[in-house]
Design goal:
Oligomer: single chain
Structural class: alpha/beta
Radius of gyration: 20 Å
Largest sheet: 8 strands, mixed
Bound molecules: adenosine-5'-triphosphate, magnesium ion
Strand order of the largest sheet: 3-4-2-5-1-6-7-8
Helix content: 40-55%
Number of helices: 15
CATH architecture: 3-Layer(aba) Sandwich
Order of helices and strands: EHEHHHEHEHHHEHEHHEHHEHEEH
CATH superfamily: P-loop containing nucleotide triphosphate hydrolases
CATH class: Alpha Beta
Strand content: 5-15%
Low-confidence stretches: none
Amino acid sequence: METKSYVIWNNKGGVGKSTISFHIASVYAEMNPDRDVIVIDMCPQANVSMMLMGGGQTGERNLQSLFDDTFPKTVVGYIADSIENVDINPNDYLVSIHEMNEKLPTNLYLLSGDGNLELIAPLLSERADAKPLSSKDRPWVKVHSILKTLTETQIDEKRPCTYFVDTNPSFSIYTQMAILAGKELLVPINADDSSIFAITGLFNLIWGTETLHPFYGKYTFASKVDNFEIERPKIALLLGNRFTQQKGAAHAFKALSTEATRKMYSEYQKHPDRFKQIGSIVKDQNEFETKYSSELRDFNSAGVVAANQGIPLSKMDKYVYTVYNETIQVSKEQREKCKETIEQLVQRL
Ligand SMILES: Nc1ncnc2c1ncn2[C@@H]1O[C@H](COP(=O)(O)OP(=O)(O)OP(=O)(O)O)[C@@H](O)[C@H]1O
Ligand SMILES: [Mg+2]
């Protein structure tokens, strides 16, 4: 059975990668009870891990408990043991989310984030750039494929598997490993100029610039991936994440999101092979927008409660919640609308 895998990345910080990862993974797991759903948290801030493990202080406590095991049940434990060639069983590193947060379904698992990812990054780079020992030895490929190998594995051979990979905005070695782990790339953007600018960066970093840089061109991630013929993820969706703080006038928002789509579409026209193939080739920008973009609404107070208490939108059934001693109201209408947007998005995956 072929696994599915989605990596959520944009080299712009704070666009909603972790929030979106939390909501889509939890709703996806609910809507696909026949599949095992695994979230891999490749961001040292471990935000999505904490949300999944109960949010707020509970999430923090649960994260801490993973370090008490003999080997850390985190991405760092998994990566370190993979490099040491330990005979690895992914299940030894996964957290069953339901056991920590009963509001989430039993088919949802986490390979937790870990702050030490930042500390091992220089060591990973050193390993990747080591001189090969023989003509068959490819240290760069070995290190960069650690997560790709995992996302091609079923954790239970009888059940199909879907992976979601949350990332850090930087293009560090662990982000490169995360990007290669996904068959499909979901790109969250906000409607602001820096988000639009980041689209160019995303293409340059993953696929390389049109002309090779004279000095370091051949050392880039893009050149190595080409040389070693490693498969990259295909862009599946541009996720317009619309928060209140930058909503502004509706028509200003629309102008910026149209510009983001235009930029993506012009990449599509030059390189349709970098995008997931959805039916026949797209003929104009409107069709491109329909097929390759999706707009997420502002989660408002429902989003604050969800992240703070690790509650998926589907399980939010109260009108009032307490967050750090403050009372927060969540209207049913708002909750329902947020849930509906996520469900519609998940149905497209
Ligand atoms: N649709 C939304 N509605 C309301 N708030 C949102 C929405 N999406 C994200 N946020 C808020 O925006 C902030 C940044 O989101 P998040 O941490 O998910 O971004 P990120 O891309 O993962 O950031 P980083 O680059 O630091 O990893 C958070 O406070 C989150 O609650
Ligand atoms: Mg994040």
